[in-house]
Amino acid sequence: MKIFQQRESEVRSYSRAFPTIFSTAKDAYLYDTHGKQYIDFFSGAGAVNYGHNNAAMKQAIIDYLQADGVVHSLDMATKAKRQFLEKFESIILKPRCLDYKIQFSGPTGTNAVEAALKLARKVKKRANVIAFTHSFHGLSSGSLSITSNTFYRHEAFTNRTNVSFVPYDGYFGKNVNTIDYLRRFLEDNGSGIDLPAAIILETVQADGGVNVATVSWLQQLEQLCRDFDILLIVDDIQVGNGRTGSFFSFERAGIQPDIVTLSKSISGFGLPLSLVLMKPEWDQWLPGEHTGTFRGNNLALVTANEALRYWETDDFSKSVKGKSQLLEKTLQDIQARYPELNAQVRGIGLIYGLDIPVPEMTQAISAEMFNQGVIIEYCGVKDNVLKFIPPLIIEENILKIGMETMNQSIKAVISRRFR
Question: With contact defined as beta carbons under 8 Å apart, do 266 and 44 qualify?
Fold first, then answer.
């Protein structure tokens, strides 16, 4: 690890939590240079939902390269892009009765968010955007302005004008409807909140602590946007692509956002690709008005085509929901087994959080699980929520082994803390 400490920037993060050198990966496993095997409950922060080195996707890349397929083409039309657009339309959009234009915005999620914000302001000719408490949308300038955590915001001295933060669902507890709160602000010319061009949200706040918005709240938010002529943007970068059980995280609420951002697992293979989906009436860009050198990565489009095969039937979605029940039940059992943790369980699909009030306990459990061969990160404003995001393709027996490792890790940490 010496070369990393000497030459890699202090900004490095995950390598500090998981201090080993990884060399290979397959399906739900990572392996380090010493041959130690780790169950992956991290999935590259949701970038490898379909597992590591998916065989069909890997073969598709090999075949494409051996045929001298176009790798870089700016935004020119290619065979890979045509196939992706056709498959995305037939497999994802049409069965869900969704009509979206697709913009290839750049290599990573924050590029999609930046484009969505720019487009919303252009279309509505308003500057303000509303975001929510505990939100995370990226760390480039525009995305950072709508990310709430002061850890990311204060050191950059980012421009915070034209963004208003309001309470997310459940922020004041179950008995306070924060949509009513927001509606009152928008109706009152003296509230200090300008009518926004857009409201942007994650239907499940992943980095914010695995906060799950209720169906009713999401539906009310959509209606509020319609009542006030505000664009609704759903950031589905981390919790889209099947993470909640359906392809889009908002499907459970039956809503249709004006704009959707996708990245991370849209390529299926961990390759950089990000998209902005927009209703056709909002596609008001002038040609070349928003560009980027690496928009529409052809290798990522090749693997994305293969990833879409998982959604040709309902079988994959059903399997995710089945494993979700196993994960939830196991976490609830752990919650009951260790009352001294005073833990809470939150989640949906294959994203769950175990909220432990003492951050040191959460971090110690993560470290112990790493020592015992499971990769898991923590999240939340206080870094006190263990976040479970295993690959969607993980086998149930591997999931059970990982959860038993967690049980043993908690037992070890509690023993050290209270002995």
Answer: no
Tell me, yes or no, whether 257 and 120 share the same domain.
yes
- The answer to whether residues 189 and 251 belong to one domain is yes
C-alpha–C-alpha distance, residues 31 and 295, integer Å: 31
Q: Which amino acid is at 60?
A: A
User: CA–CA separation, 207 vs 243, rounded Å?
Assistant: 14
What whole-number distance in Å separates Cα of residue 164 and Cα of residue 146? Answer: 8
Task: Establish if 299 belongs to a structural domain.
Answer: yes
Number of domains into which the chain is organized: 2
Task: Check pLDDT > 60 for residue 419.
Answer: no
Residues 322 and 304 in one domain: no
Answer for the pair 238, 265: CB distance below 8 angstroms, yes or no: no
Segment 216-273, tens digit of pLDDT: 999 999 999 999 999 999 999 999 999 999 999 999 999 999 999 999 999 999 999 9
Q: Are residues 304 and 328 in the same domain?
A: no
Closest to 187 (Cα-Cα) out of 227, 151, 147, 233:
227
Q: Look up the CATH number of the domain holding residue 245.
A: 3.40.640.10
For residue 49, the one-letter residue type is N
Return all residues near 263 (Cβ < 8 A) that are at least 6 apart. Answer: 108, 109, 111, 112, 237, 273, 274, 275
Domain shared by 219 and 342, yes or no: no
| Distance separating alpha carbons of residues 399 and 394, to the nearest angstrom | 7
> What range does the domain containing 411 cover?
2-53+316-418
Q: Which residues contact 296 (CB under 8 A, 6 or more apart)?
A: 73, 74, 75, 78, 81, 104, 273
Among 278, 311, 344, identify where a domain stops: 311
Q: Is there a domain that residue 79 lies in?
A: yes
Closest to 138 (Cα-Cα) out of 268, 45, 269: 45
115 and 256 part of one domain: yes
pLDDT single digits (tens) 190-228: 999 999 999 999 999 999 999 999 999 999 999 999 999
pTM: 0.96
pLDDT confidence of residue 304: 98
Could you report how far apart the first and last alpha carbons of the chain are, in Å? 33
Beta strand 129-132 pairing with 385-388: unpaired
